[in-house]
Amino acid sequence: MKNINLKVRLKNPVFLIQIILAVLTPVLAYAGLRAEDITTWSTLMKLLINAFKNPYVLSLVFISVFNAINDPTTPGLKDKRLDENCN
């Protein structure tokens, strides 16, 4: 992950939304819930805690986050040269 410029990506709201959705989507799907079913912060926290206790759900989240981070236009797991040099 040293070839990925997370400093630049974390400034991009689209990337942040991708990561949030990459975590929430598999968790909600596994629990059989929709976003509108989460109406309190405590419900969300319980859902996330239970999800992180489950190795299967963790693997789904890992794969989903990996897909959000990976740049399919470059070989391997890295950013384009231009993106690596941005600050």
From TrEMBL:
It holds the Pfam family Phage_holin_1. This is Holin, phage phi LC3 family. It comes from Thomasclavelia cocleata.
